[in-house]
Amino acid sequence: MNLSSPAVVSAILKRHDLRPRRRFGQNFLIDANMLGKIVTAGGVGPGDQVLEIGAGLGVLTHALGETVTPEGRVVTVEIDRDLLPVLEETIGSLAQVNVVSADALSLDWPVFLREQFSEDKPVHTIANIPYNITTPLLTTMVENKDRICVIVLLVQKEVAQRLAAAPATSDYGSLSVYAQYHAKVEIIATVSRRVFLPAPDVDSAIVRLTPYTEPPIRAQDEPTFFAVVRAAFGQRRKALPNALTGDPALGWDRDKAAKALSAAGIDPQRRGETLSVAEFVKLADSGL
Q: In the Cβ-directed half-sphere of 118, how many Cα atoms lie within 13 Å?
């Protein structure tokens, strides 16, 4: 069964009387070349452990299952129960693949990872996710980076650009800083909307995040660091003294902001969107 064939995928949907559901972000990838790029980006090989979020019709799941071989393990989480009969048809013959019917955001991830995977090997995580759950799901993955060696996301192109954005660019924001503080971020490939069924309204991209085992720079107090980042981007067009004192969650007054900027060696006329991750860390540490 060629699961990257539009005709085969259309026939499967018709046979099971299914239509892709927009609320689940169901746009099924039907390009063998892009499937291969995702598997390669995840560094997946024989004997590996893989967690997939969003099985869909099992197209990528099947490729992952064949790659890890029977010595490996693939656990795929699918929220749409109506797809379970399809997955039984498309990947049911692969004993190394386990389908979990659940909402990935509702899982107790430390318990789930412990129950589903051996602790003597890291977990490769791959997800084809809709825009609206990118941030919470990425946050959950990062919080469990002690078990996860790589995160590969197939997301809207604009989301990938935000994750990988450099300072002083329009795409750079709090999500960029969060991702780049925790991981090395790389855009692997742009994916045309034409290789999905049905075709979405925008192009996508494959982005790889490799969590740092030892971060190149670490904030002394991470809650303060991220509060500073949120305040700076909450009023991104304002100079830093105004942005930092305008956020009640951070709780800095103008005097404290001025002293922290001076101690960090940051020009108070700059805006938050021009600061690198390292400069945000220095600023937050200076405010402690």
A: 9
Provide the pLDDT for residue 61.
95
Sign of the Cα torsion 157, 162, 165, 170 reads positive
**Domain ranges (residues) in the chain:** 6-211, 222-286
Give me the pLDDT at residue 221, please. Answer: 97
Is residue 103 part of an annotated ligand binding site? yes
Q: Which of 110, 101, 40 is nearest to 76 (CA)?
A: 101
Q: Is 35 annotated as a binding residue?
A: no
pLDDT confidence tier of residue 23, bands split at 50, 70 and 90? low
In this structure, whether the domain defined by 6-211 belongs to CATH 3.40.50.150 is answered with yes
- Please choose, from the candidates 63, 214, 165, the residue with its C-alpha nearest in 3D space to the C-alpha of residue 124: 63
Q: DSSP state, 230? A: H
Neighbours of 65 (CB within 10 A): 24
Residue with tokens 């007054």: 253
Q: Tell whether 54 is in a known binding site.
A: yes
Nearest to 4 by CA among 78, 83, 69, 60: 60
From the list 66, 7, 13, the residue with the least C-alpha distance to 35 is 66
User: Annotated binding residue at 78?
Assistant: yes
Residue range 100-145, pLDDT digits in tens: 999 999 999 999 999 999 999 999 999 988 777 888 999 999 999 9
Q: Are 91 and 99 in contact (CB under 8 A)?
A: yes
Taking Cα atoms as reference points, which of 190, 119, 199, 123 lies closest to residue 161? 190
186 annotated ligand-binding residue: no
The tokens describing 278, both together, are 């390292």
| CATH number 1.10.8.100 given to 222-286 | yes
User: Is 2 annotated as contributing to ligand binding?
Assistant: no
